[in-house]
Amino acid sequence: MTEVKRCARCVMDDRSDSFIRFDENGVCNYCTDALRQREGWYFPNEEGARKIEQMIQMLKKEGQGKKYDCLMGLSGGLDSSYLAYLGAAKWGLRIAAVHIDDGFDTEISKSNIRRLCEKANIELITITPDAKQFNALTKAYMKAGVPNLAVPQDNVLFAFLYKFARENKIKYFLSGSNYALECILQKGNTWWAYDLTNIRDIHKKNPSINWNSFHPSGMRWISVSWVRSPCAL
Fold first, then answer.
1. Parallel, antiparallel, or unpaired: how do β-strands 220-223 and 70-73 relate?
2. What would the pLDDT profile of 50-68 be if each residue is shown by its tens digit?
3. Which of 27, 31, 64, 104 is exposed most, by the fewest CB atoms within 10 A?
4. Helix (H, G, I), strand (E, B) or coil at 223
5. Which of helix, strand or coil describes residue 63?
6. Which percentage of the chain shows pLDDT scores above 70?
7. Angle subtended at Cα 76 by Cα 75 and Cα 79, rounded to the nearest 5 degrees
8. What's the predicted TM-score (pTM) here?
9. b/e 110-144 (16+ beta carbons within 10 angstroms → b)
10. Residue closest to 99 by CA, chosen among 83, 110, 86, 87
11. Sheet containing 123-127: order of strands
């Protein structure tokens, strides 16, 4: 029986993850990658406070003469909700927040999102994908056995974000995450949401799904053909 090798720094081992690698000190690639990236991402100190203040001033300057200072996606989870609160209530930014209601939202989650935006004076825009097409595509991803089932929703979100940003001349997008707790994700447990080859292959295997238009946006390819017109709450 092959001996299990475990990271000298964390609990990861090569039995549960075939992508893991170890350096000469027995530390896994996930730890070494996170520690290397931390230098440019994680500032839980006075330096971080200065960077935030610089960012706020830049966003407000860029937003002069415009309706919004910035744009953000609002899932209703902890990270995006806290960032929305900080951005609007604490930093005084004029935020347009976009939420995707894919048909699986609970009533309490919808209520929480609306209350947050009302209290913080955030304009909430809710996008509702075509239910038949969205559910068919989600089912196709489940049948494909791929690790990232959020690809359909991610593409709906970013398709609208890029479109809205262009129409309103918004240059900046706020994104909330917790680097301290979420800087490591096993390589086999996710996949890049904008892999056009992967998306088209799944569509090819499910030709009944009306998803026949892709539009480039920067470095990403965003699917937009099956997004219905947005409605502002």
1. unpaired
2. 999 999 999 999 999 999 9
3. 64
4. strand
5. coil
6. 89
7. 85
8. 0.79
9. eeebeebbeebebebbbbbbeeebbbbbbebbeee
10. 110
11. 173-174, 70-73, 95-100, 123-127, 231-232
